[in-house]
Request: fold
Amino acid sequence: MAADPVSSAEVAGISRRIGLFGGSFDPVHVGHRRLAECALAQLGLDELRWVVAGQPWQKEMERVLAPASDRAAMVALAIADEPRFRLERCELDRQGPSYTIDTIDQLQAAACDEGQADARWFLLLGQDQYANLATWHRWQDLLQRVELAVAARDGQPPRASAALAAVPHRLSVLAMPPVAVSSTALRSALHAGTPAHDLVPEMLAAPVAQYLDRRGLYHSIPVRLG
Reply:
């Protein structure tokens, strides 16, 4: 079942609700933004942290990412108008592969130091990420630390792998309208020479498109686009 929207009255007086939305954001697009907005509304979040991956371990052998500084800059532009959104740089500043559980350890420890030990944490996932979660580093530990919030695709409930289904975990399903956009499609269009401003507003926010046109990102990609 989809998570019901949580009113301010319902969340008043309880622990702070913090969402984590991780990804390479290569580049960030309107689908990311819509998922984040659904999470704010349906989970009653006080804040949503966009965690830009520094070295995503599952993408290391697939392709070369745009520089982390560019990906972070685009996310900052995409979220600037929503005060509950926050760019989280911890994976960019940390050495080595970006493992989600390490990020959760770091952020929850910092929250404890700031007097927010009782904060409630939600991890936003797409259905593909949810299905593959049992391949993640220390995934069983992750399930003990956060509640999963998974975007429903075409109105269908997310499906867990057999390994994941065997482990009890907290799950909210986010109802989200279909969005026909992906980072792969964006990279392909830009690589083919489409100006980024021609992809506004269907795929890109205007500030992100301006950044892409100025920087000329994805025009030359040395490895496969997928």
